[in-house]
Specification:
about 110 residues; alpha+beta; 2 domains; three-stranded antiparallel beta sheet; 2 helices; about 30% helix
């Protein structure tokens, strides 16, 4: 059978709909520590928005910990970078202020 004699149906192609790509709004949650934010459930650097890798340990000291101010002051004494040291000492002052105003909440670490 020749091409002339064959009755080929014209295949109509349905118009391809482009998927609507919506950029999801990502919630950036501020933390008590001004250096970090929470993005998509991950702790991230506030400036770079880069997440701390899941396999990197993180250590948190709460204001109610009786050893917090001394621990932070000791850490500051080890800092070489003057800007970082100043930032740590400012944070230490916030912990000291909290402890002075919240004596009834202060506790020894429990874990």
């Amino acid at each position: 059978m020749s091409a002339k004699g064959s009755k080929k149906k014209a295949v109509e192609k349905a118009p391809v709909k482009k998927a609507a790509v919506k950029k999801a709004k990502v919630a950036v949650i501020k933390t008590q520590d001004p250096k970090y934010v929470i993005i998509d459930g991950k702790i991230c650097n506030e400036k770079t928005k880069k997440a701390i890798p899941a396999n990197e340990p993180v250590f948190m000291i709460r204001g109610k910990d009786k050893n917090a101010t001394k621990t932070i002051a000791f850490y500051a004494s080890l800092c070489i970078n003057p800007e970082h040291k100043l930032s740590v000492l400012e944070r230490c002052g916030e912990f000291s202020h909290f402890a002075g105003n919240n004596a009834s909440r202060m506790r020894d670490a429990d874990s």
